[in-house]
Amino acid sequence: MFTDGTHEFKIKGDTPLTPSFRRYEPKKSDENDDDSKTLPSFSQGELVSFTWVIDNKMTKAPPRYTIDSLNAYLKAPFAKSSSAQDNDDSPADDSELYEAVKKAWRLAPLQRGQDLSLNA
């Protein structure tokens, strides 16, 4: 926690105590991104000078569907995803619907100029 006398500021991040594997494999320069949360070591009472930089970044909403989730749905449309099971509080059982659709409806192969029809 930092203070300027009137305001208190909290920073979050990590300070490595030992170099561990970085001793053998140092961080590459392209890995030094702005989102790095590695902090320098400070001692209590140390005077620190810094410059405020206002960064105009936009937040993004979490993606609802990813390519992997859509592909998984296309492979098994009646399988519930783990996130859907976690969020679903209802005791609904889709096994009867799954079996009915599996047995009864198959898409007929289309020939040129034909309309889509369902075979029962």
Automatic annotation (TrEMBL):
Keywords: Isomerase. Residues 1-41 are annotated as: Disordered. Gene3D superfamilies: Topoisomerase I, domain 2, Topoisomerase I, domain 3. The keyword Amino-acid biosynthesis does not apply. One of its GO terms (molecular function) is isomerase activity. The keyword Isomerase applies. Residues 1-13 have a biased composition (Basic and acidic residues). This is DNA topoisomerase. It comes from Ruminococcus albus. The lineage of its organism: Bacteria, Bacillati, Bacillota, Clostridia, Eubacteriales.
